[in-house]
Amino acid sequence: MKALKERILRDGKCFEGGILKVDNFINHQMDPILMKSMAVEFVRRFASTKINKVLTIEASGIAPAIMVGYLLELPVVFAKKKKPSTMENMLTTTVYSFTKDRNYDVCVSGDYLCPGDKVLFIDDFLANGNAAKGIIDLVNKAGAELVGMGFLIEKSFQHGGEQLRSMGVHVESLAIIESLDDCKIVLKE
Ligand code: 5GP
Description:
This protein has helices at 2-11, 32-45, 62-72, 130-142, 160-166, and strands at residues 13-15, 19-21, 53-57, 76-79, 90-97, 102-109, 118-126, 145-155, 171-179, 186-187.
């Protein structure tokens, strides 16, 4: 998606270890106009997919997911990274965080992720695909069906996208970064 790619080149910053910082428009300050355009693009790319629920993971996935849910007029559920003591019918999985280098539990209530749901997952980044695989586990535990995964930014040099696609998941990424070597952002055409 042209507008996102241009913004990444303009405002994205590279950090050691293959991390891209997009705090200026996605992860800290947010650009709602760009966020809306990205959601419109997801709606276009998943137009032929039957969806009844949008799922994301807190915190950075919530903004794009709510925009997609708003456009599709569908409920949006976010998986939580801390287990609330009050959550009923809890489904959990463990995810390894590449940016924080540690495992964390992710949970969602089976009251909101239900058998038969056709789930579109939306998140900000796809790197090694650990968060995405955790989500697949939660969707399976709920007896729901994953119909697609949409990411604002995929870092193809970390191969999560390759793995998900080879598992047969319909993955759409709005910008694909091929390399961050030498702190230079190289985008896929
Ligand atoms: P994965 O589980 O695919 O390895 O990583 C996905 C998660 O890690 C995303 O939800 C995102 O929050 C975070 N992440 C991975 N790579 C980056 C990055 O380069 N920049 C930022 N800001 N977050 C990242």
